[in-house]
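quick one: phosphoenolpyruvate bound model?
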Amino acid sequence: MRRPFIAGNWKMNLGIKEAVSLAQEIGIGCTPFRSVDVALAPTTLAVDAVNEALQGTGVHVASQNHHESDSGAFTGAVSATMLKEAGCAYAIIGHSERRTLFGETLDDVHNKVHSAFKAGLLPILCIGETLEQRENGQAQTIVQEQLLSALKDLSADQIAAITIAYEPVWAIGTGKTASPAEAQSMHAFIRSLLQERYPSFVANDIRIQYGGSVKPHNAKELLSQPDIDGALVGGASLTAKAFIGILTAITQG
Ligand code: PEP
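yep, here:
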């Protein structure tokens, strides 16, 4: 049985004080939801303070991005080791905004997955097709390429410990959600790719989140699908009301 995993990606929103205040509110609000794993990804600058604020709540901290190298002459960059030291448990990798706005390649994503493991961070690997790719019938090909290139050279145990976040790019921040059936179909495809290539515990254990305009009103139906194990949440993670609303919705009987 896979534990549901809800992660909030705050992107470049909320300064340190605002991030701490929202983390405190969410930390308290999460108390009744011990059957769900929860993580929050603040701006890098707030990782340390948010980690402090979440002590004792069971809510983890995730990074939004890191440099693949451990240290060196990479002005402006932050390594996975540094993020681990600051309190991160998870590392979001390959978000579509990183791929499209910052030019992250398949190789970059692959290297970041490896450096996250080396530092002791658990990757949340984002994959997903654009609207154009979907309309051209390429959605599965793109998702397969992004998935398999990122997982190259990892052990079965490492792959099982990854969280995959399937995020159709056309559903991120747009208010358009993939229908539960569309999302389920891609999640089942991802799991089948793993089933074909790795020992069966990998496909059984790996958690696949859906991301793309998840809100309290649509979370339950999405997460009721057999292969949807959680959500990566952008906009609705920026208020405690909406984020806790998602947890409430998915745990209702
Ligand atoms: C995201 O950015 O990963 C995301 C899913 O955003 P939103 O929930 O706002 O669509």
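Residues 112 and 187 are 23 Å apart (CA to CA).
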